[in-house]
Amino acid sequence: MFGRMRRCPEDGTYTFSQICTRCALRTRPVHPPRFSPQDRYGRYRRQMRSWIE
Question: Which residue, 29, 26, 23, is CA-closest to 11?
Answer without folding.
Answer: 23
